[in-house]
Amino acid sequence: MHDETRAPLRFGIAGAGAIARRFCRDVNGHARGAEVVAIAARDQGRADEFARDLGLPHAYGGYEALAASPEVEAVYVAVIHPEHAGLVRQMLLAGKHVLVEKPAVTRVADWDALVALAHARGLLLLEAMKVMCFPAMRALLQRLPLLPPPRELRAAFGSTQPRVGKLFDPALDGGAAWDVGVYPLWLHAALCHRLGLGCPAPEVTLTRAPG
Predict the structure, then answer these.
(1) Which of 31, 60, 83, 107 supports an S-S bond with 65, CB 3.0-4.6 Å?
(2) pTM, entire model
C-alpha cells in the first residue's frame, strides 16, 4: 500500500490512447496519493504530444525507456489488451507496480504467471476494474449479507457499437468473449466472494446478433 503521508506515487502510462488521457486527467485532477509524471508511446512524437497536452514532465518514445525510468514507481498499462501480458511482465521485471486496463490478459495462464512474478518481487499488480469502486456497487456489496441468499446469478453486458475497429476484431481478441465480457465476470466473482460462495466457475454463453 502507498503511504499517503509521503510524496504521491509517481505513475507512468504505457499507451497514449483515449483511455490513457482520461486516466491522466482523473489522477492529476483528483487523486491525493498519486500523480502521473510520464507517458510512453511507440513513437516519440505521439508521446511528446500527449505530454504537452496534459502537462507531463517526461515523455518516452518506447516502453523500454518507461520501464527503466527512475522517475516512475508504478505503470498504468493502457495498450490494446492482447499486448498486456508482455508489457506487464516487462514492467514487473523492472520493479514497477502495475495497474493494467481490463481485461488484464486474454489467457488464464498468463495472469497466473504474472501474479506469481508480482508476489515474488513484492509488487502490486491490479486490474483496473473501476466498477468495483462505484458507490452503488459498494452499497450493493454491503447489503448483500442482509438479503435472502440467491439461488442463481445472471449477469449480461449489452451495448450497441459500430462493427468496425478493434472492439469486434477477432484477431485482436475483440467482442464479448474477450473484451467487454470481463464486466459480468467481475460481477460474478465479486458477489460470490461477498457471499462466501467460493466463486464457482460460471457458465458463459455468447449470443451474436445477425448481420
Answers:
(1) 60
(2) 0.84
